[in-house]
Every structure is written in structure tokens, then in C-alpha cells.
Amino acid sequence: MTYKYSILLPESWTKDNFYTYTSEQSIENGSFVVVPVKTKKATGIVMGTDSENNFDGLREITEILSYKLNEQVINWIIVSSKYTLIPMNQILKMILVSNKNTKPGYLEIQSEVNDLKPGKYPIEMLKMHWNKVRAMMKEGVITETEFPSSDIPMEQDFFSPDQTKAINSIQAITSGTVLLKGSTGSGKTNVYFEILHKIWQQGKQILILVPEISLTYQLIERFHERFKVYPYRWHNSCKQPVWNWAVSGKPGVVIGVRSALWIPFSNLGLIIVDEEHSTTYKQENGPRYNAKDIAILRAKSENIPIILVSATPSLETVKNIRDKNYKCVELERTIPNKLNIKLVKTNKWMSDDLKKHIQETLERKEQVMLFLNRKGFSTHIHCTTCNNRLLCKSCTAGLIFYKNNYTHCSYCSQKQLMPKVCPECQSEDSWKFYGMGIEKIQDQLCEIFPDHKISLLSSDTTEIIDETMHKMQNNEIDILIGTQILAQGCHFPNLTLVGIVQGDIGAHSGDIRNTERMYQLISQVKGRCGRADKPGTVIIQSADDKHPLLQAIAQENTKEWLDQELSIRQNHNLPPFSRMIRIIIGSKSAALTEKIVMNIKKPTILGVEIMGPAPTQLHKYNNDYRWSFLIQYSKNIFPQAKIKQWIDGFRLPKNVRLTIDVDPQSFF
Ligand SMILES: [Zn+2]
Ligand SMILES: [Zn+2]
Fold first, then answer.
1. Which of 440, 451, 608, 619 is geometrically suited to a Cys-Cys bond with 633, CB 3.0 to 4.6 A?
2. What does the DSSP 8-state code read for residue 152?
3. Is 422 annotated as a binding residue?
4. pLDDT digits over 68-77, tens only?
5. Which ligand ends up closest to the CA of 413?
6. CATH superfamily entry for domain 340-375+437-570
């Protein structure tokens, strides 16, 4: 008998979601199959039967692979696609990994290899070429093994009464979303380790999402300290073995950044989203989605718990707790010393107060951290002849100047040599530089404190993050200056002074979440110091010392500020009190984009307001001239299907780019 199956493929050539193929065998839904596509082969998933299809030229499934997705995962793919408006084939593309080789995931080494002592390790930790690993496996030096189990109990008195209470209350929750809230140093990680341990021992799989790749390294070390076993890491070099393990349903733990969300676990027992407020969970290139929200959908479809972890939860989460959609478990800070927080009014980059504190801290042989969310040397390059700002060639954005004589665009990330001649007026040597970046601060500090080691950390220097963190831990750095990367969790026992160079940065720009992000960043950065037995000082500099947020942070009383911020959002019906979808249309021709958007007719949908079209704030981005629609709707409706219908009717030419951003986080 010939069966006909609907197959979801990672590409789509028409508006259809599925393509029909035949097979002589009966195949279960969710099975991975290989099918011919034109002259090539593609891997797809069986979504159901299609016996009604009487088309003559149906082709046959060439191979049925040994793994399949369960019903919950299939259901989650469908729901995620409906919510984010990302076509299902693009979701499948994110789920699939290359299956060219079948490396083992976990290995046991019998003698020392690459500084690793004999023991069991995930393959990526060997940091060796696969051919070499294979050769050593043939020699018997390395053998394949399973993800080890770990049943080392924690000593009873390891946890404070507060932490024990938190563990008990979260363990009582068998499904739904719970926020584990606690300031830096309150022991959140130890608490969720305890919870995942129990679920791991029940033979389940656990996913830990973290915002930054640099954080995975530290978390993996902590995990090993606790369990004497290394977790898997979702990493470019070893996706395939982790993927195979996930589909197999065998117990274990994987840590990864947002793309780890798409691993098709068949036996998931718990999801943890660390630093849930982080903006890096939002994918801003390609298909746009928020990994945290899709993870919550995932937990729902599996009927398992999901733990959001944060010291400074997003307002979306705060509102969900107030509305009783999420539960909340809170930890107190267990550090013995209270922080000494000072708000200093100044127009200089370094007030006398800050300078004095830096001096005293260095004299005590303790460490200083300075935070300024401005990369490079100067943030503003200006031509004194024609009065124009030097702009990026691909964007309508001003360029940043770097000390190595390069310019950098913070939108499209292009780096270019600083031009000698002004492109507008052809004048030579007419540049003037304004605005302070961290490189300039480093230069000036080196003059003031010539005998001290002063280092930089920003997303420009990700390749030295681990090295810098180690040096900081070993006291080889006296002053560390950095951008928001400093906010990510790290423990330096000798760090006792944190200076926020410009506390009011960004306070007046147009983004609705700007103050919220300031609150999260400053709170996180200030939490870096005074975490051990030495008291810590935080100095927040600002031209406006009456700023309600800075006042609230200085008094360590942010609840009132949160209430205020929430009521502002409510009064303007902004998220989290409403939802938004942003539609961006762009092309290389400004005239073409404008003509197209002007011809789009807006539909009337009950409860939905469609604003625009309007040129985007950054009109030219990556050489595209862009216009956008902003759709706002109330929280209790899901107009996605109707919006999709409207968008499908646009009929855009091939050279016009369409971006759909559900729950947008950026508005440039
Ligand atoms: Zn000029
Ligand atoms: Zn640019």
C-alpha cells in the first residue's frame, strides 16, 4: 500500500507549509525523513497523512531516519509559529543541525589529555580535532560513555533558611512559570542547582538558558564544582552530539544561549532562564523571537516548570506576577556588609569624590570597576568646516571613533579606517572629536594612576573575556573599565569600588524600555562589588541627581520606582499593558520603499490599532531604506492570524525586505 504524507521542510517555495511525499511504509508523525527536492535531498518531519492528494507526480520518501519528535514538540512548533509569525519551515531550520558525522557526546579519558585529568567529559572540552579523537578512541585511550549521573547531596547547613524555603516552594511547583528573584550574592544559582538536581535524578533532561556565551564558561565551572560532572554546552563545534542526546531522551543537562531553545528534547523536565531580563534573549537578526517567551510556550506544551531567574526582573515579568500568571520566590541578600551607595552630582566624567575613592581603594590594594555604556574613544566625530557629523556609509547613524584610528557603526557593526578627508566637504584635518568612550577613560586614568594596571572590557573584546576575568580574579588588574558586559554575573572578592560614570546615560532617548534597562544595568553593575567579606562602595555620577530612578537605586528602594514606571506604562497603554507587532519594510531604494508602503491599505481589526507607515527612526540601516508599521493591541487578544492575512496580501517585489517583529524590544 502507498501512503501519502505531509512533510515539513526547512525551505518553502510556495505559501504552503507542507509538501506531500509517498512511502510504501507506514511512518509515525514526527519522524525525520529524507526526501528529494529538485536535484537535492532535504531532511523534513512527517506532520500527518495527506491521502486526499491525487497529484500524479508525487515523489517518494528516500529514507526514514531513526529519530522522531514527540507530539508536544510538534505542537510547540505550531504554536510558536502562530505566535511569532515565523513560518514553520524557518523554525524547522533552527531546529535542525548538520548531521554529517556522528560524534559521540560524552567521552571518558584514561590518561591526561590536553590538561584534562582522567575522567568523563563532554567532547567539546577536549578541544581536539575530531580525527585525533577518533584515532585515540581506536587506541583505547578515549572511550565513548553516557552523560554521567551525579548524586552528591548538599550538606544540610550549606543553605540558609531562606534558601531552603525557596527550594521547597519551587520544588512544590510541578508546572507553570516561577520567578526566582534575589539580588547578586543571594545564592540563586545554588538554589536552582538543587532543583534541577532532583529533576535530573528523576531521569529527565534540563535546559539552562544564559544570555551571553561568556557566562556559559563560568556557569559550567560552578556546575562542575557542585556536581563533579560537566554539563553539555550548546556550542558551534559540538551541536550534533548534543542534538542526538536530546532526541534520545537520556538524562542530562545542557547550558546554552538563546539558540539552545530550539534543541528538540524528547524528555524535557525543566527549563531555567538565567538573567531573564536580559535583552540578548531577543533575536534581532533573521527570524525575530524572544527565547524566553518561546521557552515559556515550550514548558506549557510539555506541562513542566520553567524558572526565570533575575535580580531585576523585566516589567513584563513583574506584571505577570502581579496578575498571578507567574509565581514568585524571593531570596534575601546573604552578604554581611551593606553596600555604601553614593549619588554624586557632576558634569565631569570623574568627580573629586570618585577620584578620592579610587585613590583610597588602590592604596588598600583593592580593585575598582568603572562602568560606562559607551564603546570606543569618542562617540561623536564632527567636521569643523561643514559642520556635519561623520556618518556610517550604510546607515543614517553617527560613527564612533576608536583609538586604533578606526571608526565603528554601532548599528551595522562595520569597521572602517578613519577618513583623512571629510566626505561631505573634502576638507582635510577638520575633524573634531566629542563624547567619551571607555578607551578615553582608560587613557586619562593611565595618566592619573600610572603605576596601576588598567584594562578594558566590552563586546569588542569578547575574545579576551575569559582571560580578563581570570586576571581580575587573580588581582592582576587594578581598574577594570567596561560597558554593559560588566553587568553579567561574575564574582571578584577583592572588588570594593564600583563607579557608574554616567548614571543618566540614555535617560532621555525615545525607547519605551530605556529607564527599565538603566535600572537593570546599574543594579547589576553595582551588585559586582562587596560580595565577599569586604564592604563595598558604589558611586553613581549624574548631571541630574534628582532622577527618580537613581534616587531609588541609591536608597536601595526600587519598589516605589517600579510602581511608578508601571503606572506610566499603564497610562500610555504601553507594554506590558498592551502588546505590539512591528512590521518593517525596506529596500535599497528610498523611493521604492516609500511607494510600496504608501500603497498598502490598512485593515480594520477589532481591538487592534495599526500606526504608520512612517520612516523608521534609523531610516537607512545596512543600506536599506526602511519604513514601518507599529501594531498595538490589547493583551487578551491574539490578532496574529489576521495580521498574517494582511501581510500575505502585500505582494512585495523580490528586492524588498520584510521583517515581522512580534513583541519588539528595539525600535530603531
Ligand atoms: Zn566637512
Ligand atoms: Zn552602519
1. 608
2. -
3. yes
4. 999 999 999 9
5. 2
6. P-loop containing nucleotide triphosphate hydrolases (3.40.50.300)
